[in-house]
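Worked example (supplementary).
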Amino acid sequence: MNFTSIPTAQIQDTMARLSYFEGWDKEQLARLAVGAKQFALLRKEKLAAKGDRLEALYIVVSGQMRLFIPLSNGAERVVSLVERGDGFGEPCLIQDEPCPFEAVAGKDSHLIAIDKLVYRRELRQSQAMTERTLNLISQRLLHTLHDIEICAQPSSLQRVAHYLVHLRPPSLDTEQEFRLPALKRDIAAKLGLSQETFSRMLAFMAQQGFIQLSGSQVRVDDWNRMHGLAKAGCPMEVAGKN
Amino acid sequence: MNFTSIPTAQIQDTMARLSYFEGWDKEQLARLAVGAKQFALLRKEKLAAKGDRLEALYIVVSGQMRLFIPLSNGAERVVSLVERGDGFGEPCLIQDEPCPFEAVAGKDSHLIAIDKLVYRRELRQSQAMTERTLNLISQRLLHTLHDIEICAQPSSLQRVAHYLVHLRPPSLDTEQEFRLPALKRDIAAKLGLSQETFSRMLAFMAQQGFIQLSGSQVRVDDWNRMHGLAKAGCPMEVAGKN
DNA sequence: CGTGTCGTTGAGCGCTTTCAACCCTGGTGG
DNA sequence: CCACCAGGGTTGAAAGCGCTCAACGACACG
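After joint prediction of all chains, the assembly is encoded as:
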């Protein structure tokens, strides 16, 4: 964890450019920046272990953080992949509870750490900030429920189909080609699948003409058919010849 | 859905006795009670479908609500079992998003519905209420993450063990006997297991001396051994004779 | 050209599900 | 008092799906 000593004013400046703080008061940011630190993490470097007491709110400035629950068989269940402009740790700080996941850098990253006490003090004193945070956490809870919905799908094929469908939102009316937002391994771990199964399902969908894929580029020609896959329990039929 | 026309004052009175509103201002409750309705639900009666726009915050006065995600194979993935004094729907109201689950009465129940507009107005105007709600939702997010952790366990035996361990909190230092907090069917659906598998795992744990059970009464003699089960990937070994 | 990371493919096993029948309990009405 | 029924739960047998292990391929980097 490489602390590059950076003046508060510059940290505040960086914060102002992050989507996390979009629309926040300038004075609010100034107060939050007090005692905040910026630092770098190397790929695979661990920031927090499951059960740790977090001492700060973390915001990703660049890179990516993998939040996951370590499993007894050595595997991981990815809970969230935090990209630039997003943060994590609010519920732990607010409730003073141990961290429910492990936080490891997925790439070389830069983060900002906002001191826990400062954070809580500001939260207590600013209605606007409390509201924003409530919105944020509500959003995140809904998002988590949606993740659960995906993982609850009875077959792995449906899980992947559901995931792809959920990946559409950014106006893919004309552009139906996109790239997977993370390593396939991590996506698999988020869907509760092994890397191998995820690969096989993608291959199957390609072979059946649901998608075309090269590397992490994916093209979906017919979203309706994809929706069908997500809902219908097509039992991965003979797949021999159609 | 049987609306028993009840005066606002009496609803406010009922609210004051619910743990959900513990410590809230009396005036706050009075304002929230305006436009609130109390009603009864019969066992299995549906209150909201997945995708519905909720028009109220719901608080359970008696009975139990099952919140679940319906699956394509007709099964359900229980997300939460809401008992007396708890509520649901806040994130949907706050974010104005469709309901991510289905809400059905698990038993004959009585609920209070607090009008969406009233709720949001009060939330906007009261720092205290925003804070409380933020705490509530944070708590719920952490709880949901823990549920994910349980469901992520690689074997069903570990899932059940984890679940039982998590059921301990209420000072079971002396009293290590308790009863399951819901129908086994619903617990199974919350663990992402079929009813049959859940039954088998309990039977196995009983046969191996991890627990004693009669009906929904469970006694755990050695919590350490149970912890062991939850973490170690004991692959349901031969179980023949020890 | 070696090394590390990411991903694909193949073969085999075993757990979980599914479908089925059966048991048990409590309530109801003749 | 007992027959009957509905709901909840248990148990058995069979089948399939996803995991594990392992080897291989592709690609980037130094």
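Two points are worth noting when inspecting this output. Residues 73, 155-156, 193-194, 196-197, 200, 235-236 of chain A lie near DNA strand D (CB under 10 Å from a C1'). Chain A is about 40% helix and 25% strand.
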